[in-house]
Amino acid sequence: MYEHLETAEQTENLKRVVVDPVSRVEGHGKVTLLLDENNKVQQARLHIVEFRGFERFIQGRPYWELPVLVQRLCGICPVSHHLAAAKAIDQLVGIDPENLPVSADKLRRLLHFGQVMQSHALHFFHLSSPDLLFGFESDIGKRNIIAVLTDYPDIGLQGVKLRKYGQEVIRMVSGKRIHGTGAIAGGMNKSLTKVERDYLLEDIDQMITWAADSVALIKKVHCSNLPYYDDFATIRTNYLGLTKPDGALELYHGGIRAKNVEGETILDHFDYCRYNDIIHEEVRSWTYMKFPYLLSLGKEDGWYRVGPLARVNNCDYINTPLAEAARVEFKEHTGEAMVHSTLAFHWTRLIEVLHCAESIKELLHDPDIMGHDLVAQGERRFEGIGVIEAPRGTLFHHYQVDENDIVTKANLIVSTTSNNMAMNESVRQVAAEYLSGRELTEPLLNNLEVAIRAYDPCLSCATHAVGKMPLQLELVDAKGQLIDKLIKHSDGQIDRLDG
Amino acid sequence: MVKPVLLFGYGNLSRGDDALGPLLLEYVESHCDLTDIDLLTDFQLQIEHALDLENRQLVLFIDASVACVSAFDFSELTPAKDDSYTTHAMSPSAVLAVYQSIKKQSPPPCFLLAIKGESFELGEGVSANAQNNFAAACQFVERLLDSPSPDAWRNFINV
Question: B47 and A127: CB-CB below 8 Å?
Fold first, then answer.
């Protein structure tokens, strides 16, 4: 591991390089490197520079507002927050997952499959395929979706349409693309009509074909340079996520499973309502993002990865045939119990797209999604915990309410937070193995961003404003003197300004 | 069947002045004749929104902006490859460029109404200054919708 590069022993006389902002990720993060006189990396960190204050946003609101309110935490995965909050407030009205009406459960799963599918499609086709198809150090003018659409028109168009289809599933189930009120306490507020079901069925076979093609594509890309893909940004870690009771891949509801580097089970079928008993979060002074870890293993060894790589590594099988065949091929490619390649996040992400497409088809043929028994109610409670597998990994929502139904306490652990330590370790691996000792250039620094991007981090929420900052890379000596500066302009042009 | 005019207001209702785009759609929904107008909102622009431009005769993107010179800026858009290709949130010009790449044809006439905002924090309401800008923008959009044609809208540029 590369933890020795988290904090340099002597920061005097080290040069500082800042990658700010990291591009093609959601939100604002930056990477700082401290280099010695020979450009050897002595320290590397991924910083999160925005404090989100989710809990303060939620506390003081009536609980029934939460499924709509929390969608506004994140413009990238609003449905994930919507469903995690809905699962939590189900408990507030006395409904545990096994008591949710069958139709409501299946409609929520359909909604979730649509969300995961569109999120993964966006990440792969729009944000990562330029690196993977053109090369990590390729001309920056090529590293964008337009170049993909130009040079690989079929792949680019499939990405746009897979994304669109996932959005249409969301729109049909929740009534709107965003701000939908599909899930409510104890169930769903509408089912699918036959017209809506038939509309979604029209294109689902095409989506499955394209999803299968995308798995074949990423396998080809990954295996075309296996030693490099299996080494780049790779770290050997624990993995955590939900699985079904029989060990199958699960995205909506299950027990927590954690495995170690060797694939040995740390815990299994653990009730997520007791997550506080097994997961703690550490705070470090140099970043706003916390560092979760498994209490039983301690701060040093207990950190873990979540998300598609963790889920596919952890599960025993996938319950849809094409995705299962893809999983078997994936696991066999290294011969190890666990696949630790960070770039394999892309491969597993596309296996999950395929699983989502197959699952959507299965649900669309299930008459329960047009059922009308949609809401259940039980005995009132004052605490609710909802956990789902969001596109980026395990997402925890935990609320306490008072007798007036007002949220008095909220705690969220978002997926990207769980990957915080891992992203930092991957940055340090790339800094140590691929950058150290070399003159830094934009293409070389893109390697750092490629490592971070593999996790598809969501560093912020859905804010935006016209007129964003360009990417700037600054090289500063220990006395704060600017000695080198690269600026990437909005047209992709790179200028070097001497300090 | 899509309607000939699309108004696409984007932003986050819970992020202070970022709400200006979606709020303007709410204003249009309650004050204007929607016979020929589709309203669309989202948190931010993405690649698939290129497909929402299909078969339109006129499109208006509405967004909050920190870069406005006055209360609001109105401009015509052209497809452009800019740095928004590298983020989750794309610019409207970048969406037009995606449309052009996918459809192999020029996008329909598209315009941007950028309303000046200044505060974008989670949980904040719309700032006082932005509320004034919003009121002016609402009146302006009503004038635009009185003459829904590209040539008429071009006469409003920089007004």
Answer: no
Within 82-141 of B, beta carbons closer than 8 Å to A belong to 82-89, 91, 97-98, 101-102, 114, 117, 120, 122-123
Q: Cβ of B48 and A73 within 8 Å?
A: no
The CATH number that applies at residue B9 is 3.40.50.1450
The distance of A346 to chain B (nearest Cα, Å) reads 17
ipTM: 0.84
pLDDT in tens, A160-172: 999 999 999 999 9
Instruction: Tell me A62's DSSP state.
Output: B
Confidence of residue A467 (pLDDT cuts 50, 70, 90): very low
When divided into structural domains, chain B yields a total of 1
Instruction: Check if the beta carbon of residue A455 is closer than 8 Å to that of residue A392.
Output: yes
Are the beta carbons of A160 and B47 separated by less than 8 Å?
yes
Cβ distance B42 to A177 less than 8 Å, yes or no, reads: yes
Closest CB from A54, A72, A144 relative to B81: A144
CB-CB: which of B51, B114, B117 is closest to A160?
A: B51
pLDDT in tens for each of the 159 residues of chain B?
899 999 999 998 888 999 999 999 999 999 999 999 999 999 889 888 999 999 999 999 999 998 888 999 999 999 987 655 555 578 999 999 999 988 999 999 999 999 999 988 878 899 999 999 999 999 999 999 999 999 999 999 965
Given strand A393-401, what is the order of strands in its sheet?
A383-390, A393-401, A407-413
CA distance A267 to A114: 29
- Put residue A337 in one of left, alpha, beta given phi > 0 → left and psi -120 to 50 → alpha: alpha
As to burial, measured by CB atoms within 10 angstroms (0-12 exposed, 13-18 middle, 19+ buried), residue A336 is: middle
> Rounded to a whole number, what is the distance in Å from the CA of B146 to chain A's nearest CA?
27
Residue-wise pLDDT tens digits, B107-153: 999 999 999 999 888 788 999 999 999 999 999 999 999 999 999 99
| Residues in A touching B88 (Cβ below 8 Å) | 24-26, 75-76, 122, 127
pLDDT at position A484 is 61
CA distance A67 to A69: 6
How does pLDDT run across A54-108, given as a tens digit for each residue? 788 889 999 999 999 998 887 778 899 999 999 999 999 999 999 999 999 999 9
What letters, b where the CB count within 10 A reaches 16 and e where it falls short, cover A102-126?
Answer: ebbbbbbbbbbbbbbbbbbbbbbbb
Q: Across the interface, do A54 and B87 touch by the CB < 8 Å criterion?
A: no
Decide if B62 is inside a domain: yes
CB contact under 8 Å between A159 and B47, yes or no, is: yes
Judge: A164–B84 Cβ closer than 8 Å, yes or no: no
Cβ within 8 Å, pair A144-B86: yes
Inter-axis angle of helices A78-92 and A153-174, nearest 10: 30
Q: Which of A170, A77, A126 is nearest to A460 (CA)?
A: A77
Interchain proximity B83–A178, CB inside 8 Å: no
Mean pLDDT, residues A180-206 taken together: 95
Within a domain: B132: yes
* Interface with A, mutate which of B8, B45, B47 (most A CBs under 10 A): B47
- Number of cross-chain residue pairs from A and B with Cβ atoms under 8 Å apart: 132
Domain that holds residue B64: 5-14+35-154
pTM of the model: 0.88
Which residue in B78, B46, B121 sits closest to A73, CA to CA? B121
